[in-house]
Write a structure and sequence with these properties.
The structure is a homodimer. By secondary structure, chain A is mainly alpha-helical. In chain A, helix 4 runs antiparallel to helix 9 and helix 5 runs antiparallel to helix 6. The longest helix of chain A is centred in the middle third of the chain and has 21 residues. Chain A is globular, with a radius of gyration of 19 Å. The first copy, chain A, starts with 6 loop residues before the first helix and ends in a 6-residue tail after the last helix. At the A-B interface, helix 3, helix 4 and helix 7 of A face helix 3, helix 4 and helix 7 of B. The structure holds a DNA duplex. Chains A, B: Keywords: DNA-binding, Transcription, Transcription regulation.
Chain lengths: 230, 230
DNA sequence: TGCACCAATCTTGTATACAAGACTGTTGAG
DNA sequence: CTCAACAGTCTTGTATACAAGATTGGTGCA
């Protein structure tokens, strides 16, 4: 939760969530070591931790790369999120006392409001970041730290998927879903919230063009597009 | 999946699942390096990966230790498993084609049979190992590699919990639950299987004495008990 | 005796050195 | 001109060296 302790990992993850690091990007140990002002040792440690979390992978003696989920992996990641998030919401009604922690609904409502604003200002980076954060906040509200961590990593993965398969997923529609879920939660209709969450994640997944093989030259094309600086 | 690549991690995990490594056990880098015939570097890498998976933790300049889940963490780990495993089973009916992979039910049936035999022979180590493996196999049958990995680690955690809070959880009752789940799956009654799974995990959790603080001297007492070698 | 202080030892934390493989660009033959 | 072979460079893989903190055991004072 704090900044200094493992800032390399958090830094990479937030760069991914914010769309500043694209799938397939190479992360050289030496470069990162220089950026963070530490030796390669600590960079390697951070990379390995990120690897076990499924965020980056290593190609032997070539370097570390932000993962590029295949279509199969993409589907699996969304399925995993669907299973866990709907399971979480459905579990709420079995917890008579716990329910959601404190002012969770109020926080979520405020978050959805933030999403709305980001939609209007149109800042694409913070927009996708906020849309992903909603699910993490929801997990946090549920109060199970294990599930929160798991969903944080899965969300990072699906964010990468969205970047790869260029969904024109209506950000507005997503935010509407989020608002609907919060409303149902406020009413205590957990089963309904779970159902809507299921539809929501399916909708996002269906918005992706998983049939289209990811273009390995995407980055290159962008650079070579007319108007690029010499 | 293969043996040689990351055998240190797998070795530690299987030692935990098999009850050969107890919570709180210290894992010295130098010792492990000698055992595995490598330098401390690789041991450290393995430990860090296990740390991000929540299996071990490091105490600054004191060493690596197998985690000792607190009562709160124990409850959270069981809740996470319940959410995910029931969510998985409930999701089966929404997958018209997929359902369970191939001969999964047959495999699970065979596994339950193995459990029964282990119960009779009474080998305690392999027994707890098998009872945990059932859930991992079930996840594998579902076919989502992410969920399989997640549940593997969560199961390792709950195994540690069971060791700490000395549940007299009837192994026989657990195995009966497993058998019941397999039967319901074979009948295609996924909702029923999910319900039974929910009860099953609750039962195991309730069998634990989470109120009893774990005894930090357990290992010592055992060594000093009458009959121990000089 | 009881306790505070201190030195010796051990263990992890971090950096660095070197080995091994992958990629790049050049060169020379056909 | 095309392409195969090769040397050079770059990057990761692994080990080792040293620094920093923790623990332990001993010593001396009250």
């Amino acid at each position: 939760m704090t900044q200094p302790p493992d800032s390399i990992e958090d830094s990479v993850i937030s760069a991914i969530l914010g769309g500043r690091l694209r799938p397939g990007t190479r992360l050289g140990e030496a470069k990162l070591a220089e950026v963070y002002g530490v030796s390669r040792t600590r960079v390697r440690e951070a990379m390995m931790r990120l690897e076990t979390r499924g965020i980056v992978h290593v190609s032997a003696r070539r370097g570390w790369f932000v993962v590029e989920p295949s279509a199969t992996e993409a589907r699996a990641a969304f399925q995993a999120r669907r299973v866990i998030e709907t399971g979480m919401l459905r579990d709420l009604h079995t917890l008579p006392e716990h329910t959601l922690r404190g002012d969770a609904v109020a926080h979520l409502r405020a978050h959805v409001e933030e999403e709305r604003e980001a939609l209007h200002t149109g800042h694409v980076g913070s927009r996708t970041c906020l849309l992903g954060d909603f699910h993490i906040h929801l997990a946090h509200a549920f109060g199970n730290p294990f599930l929160t961590d798991i969903l944080r990593d899965l969300t990072a993965r699906t964010t990468l998927v969205s970047m790869l398969y260029q969904s024109d997923q209506d950000a507005a529609a997503s935010s509407d879903d989020h608002a609907g879920i919060v409303t149902l939660l406020a009413d205590g209709d957990y089963a309904g919230a779970a159902r809507l969450m299921d539809e929501h994640i399916r909708r996002v997944e269906d918005g992706l063009d998983l049939a289209a093989a990811p273009d390995p030259l995407a980055g290159l094309r962008e650079i070579l597009s007319p108007g690029a600086p010499a």
